[in-house]
UniProtKB/TrEMBL annotation:
Protein name, per record: Thiamine-phosphate synthase
CC per GO annotation: cytoplasm
Residue stretches making up the Thiamine phosphate synthase/TenI domain: 16-196
PANTHER family associated with the record: THIAMINE-PHOSPHATE PYROPHOSPHORYLASE, THIAMINE-PHOSPHATE SYNTHASE
Organism expressing this protein natively: Mediterraneibacter catenae
Catalytic reactions of this protein: 2-[(2R,5Z)-2-carboxy-4-methylthiazol-5(2H)-ylidene]ethyl phosphate + 4-amino-2-methyl-5-(diphosphooxymethyl)pyrimidine + 2 H(+) = thiamine phosphate + CO2 + diphosphate; 4-methyl-5-(2-phosphooxyethyl)-thiazole + 4-amino-2-methyl-5-(diphosphooxymethyl)pyrimidine + H(+) = thiamine phosphate + diphosphate; 2-(2-carboxy-4-methylthiazol-5-yl)ethyl phosphate + 4-amino-2-methyl-5-(diphosphooxymethyl)pyrimidine + 2 H(+) = thiamine phosphate + CO2 + diphosphate
Pfam family, one: TMP-TENI
Residues binding Mg(2+), per UniProt: 79, 98
Amino acid sequence: MRSDNQGNCRKEDLLLYAVTDRSWLNGESLYDQVEKALKGGVTFVQLREKNLDEEAFLEEAKEIKKLCAQYRVPFVINDNVGIAAQIGADGVHVGQSDMEAGDVRRKLGPDKIIGVSAQTVEQALKAQEHGADYLGVGAVFPTGSKADAVEVSHETVKEICKAVDIPVIAIGGITADNVTELAGTGICGIAVISAIFAQKDIEAAAQTLKLRTEETI
């Protein structure tokens, strides 16, 4: 079943999707690190803050939203629908334990991007039916970035891609060295955290990942 709310994000925008993490700031600002990633060719940015207070999160979201707009790259907020609505972000990404996609759609309106995490075909079909614009599927490799990550086989990724009409990106433990293992699964892009933000040269890491991903899909 195709969702009436599709079309808010293009497949090509999901090629190299960066999820922020302040674990590796090392004296830099998150803003500066995101700009380096954008210069390296990142095509989509998700601001993920699990431990920042609401006021600081709001200010940071406003600044990074402006930065992404300069690079013409979609900008979404992880989980926090209230902040996404308040700053006019391009959308929001929610997990299975967060607000359901249909409720997010009612809060944000028809023109915002809604991404949903999925680990099974059933979850993927439900998210699509409820108005998700894209799916983040994983973890496709072991990952240290999310303590609660469930591993998803590449066969399941393939099944999800076949089952839904909306774009699917892979997430979890993806690096420039293993991304080619995802060839043939049907994904339209990858989402990464440490493969960009934990690297000494963020811009170069993004460039390499983008190239390898283009070769893979």
